[in-house]
Amino acid sequence: MDDGEPAGNSRLVGSSTGGAGSVALSPVLVIGFGSPFRSDDGVGPRIIEELQVCALPSYVELIDGGTEGLDIVHLVEGRRKVIVIDAASMGQRPGSFVRFTMNDASLLDHRDAVSAHVAALGDGLRLAQALGVLPSDVVIFGLQPVSLDWGRGLSPEVEAAVPDLVVSVLAEIPPDAGSMRLP
User: Fold this and answer.
1) Which of 31, 14, 24, 26 lies closest to 124 in space, CA to CA?
2) What residue spans define the domains of the chain?
3) How confident is the model at residue 181 (pLDDT cuts 50, 70, 90)?
4) pTM confidence score
5) Confidence class for position 112, pLDDT limits 50, 70, 90
6) Where are the alpha helices (DSSP H) in 109-182?
7) N or C terminus of the chain: which is more exposed, having fewer CB within 10 Å?
8) Dihedral of CA 182/33/52/93: which sign?
9) pLDDT of residue 123
10) For residue 98, what are the CA distances in angstroms to 45, 90, 139?
11) CA 99 from chain center: how many Å?
């Protein structure tokens, strides 16, 4: 199946541009990881789709991160806040989600992750932190999948969680850009 996008590549969904066609970084980055061809693994990109129709502040950038968790290293540099959404097998009730921060050791030590990009995401966050490019304000939403098998569409349990997850992500976006200005 081909949706016209190379598998695993990040896709910029919304951004603000600076002068002369250069891309100006938005202080707040919301990135959804996953593959819409792997059932519930597509929850990250699905949340990004839902956020596209919301009235978001101009200082927020949305990115469909695909399946390359290590891409986060170059995507977070220069940001003030990063919000990540991904499916993650955490032993929770299917369709439930957990909010993590970089202080949660369980996130970074998730070596037995079901999908390779979840493990790569943890590695990417650690690398960005080691390189000094990771902002101090990072929030990760992990959603417990029912299935990561090949197939399009979310399971009913994960689909039912989408509205609540969107509300939780929106609650993480700062209300004004004053504190979100880049250096």
Assistant:
1) 31
2) 11-15+22-174
3) low
4) 0.81
5) very low
6) 116-131, 156-172
7) C
8) negative
9) 84
10) 17, 9, 10
11) 12
Question: Is the CA virtual torsion 38, 146, 138, 109 positive or negative?
Answer: negative
Read off the pLDDT of residues 139-172 as tens digits, 9 standing for 90 and up: 999 999 999 999 999 999 999 999 999 999 999 9
Pick the closest to residue 124 from 182, 178, 71, 183 (CA basis).
Answer: 71
Of 146, 147, 140, the closest CA to residue 124 belongs to 140
The residues, any chain, with a CB within 8 Å of residue 108's CB and separated by 6 or more, are 102, 122, 125, 126
* Alpha helix (H) residue ranges in 70-142: 72-76, 105-108, 116-131
Burial of residue 8 (number of CB atoms within 10 Å: 0-12, 13-18, 19+): middle
How would you list the strands of the sheet with 97-101, edge to edge? 11-14, 60-66, 28-33, 81-87, 137-143, 97-101
Q: Are strands 81-87 and 97-101 parallel, antiparallel or unpaired?
A: unpaired
Element of type H or E holding 31? strand 28-33
In CATH, 11-15+22-174 is 3.40.50.1450: yes
Question: Across residues 88-110, what is the average pLDDT?
Answer: 81
Q: Report the pLDDT averaged over residues 104-111.
A: 56
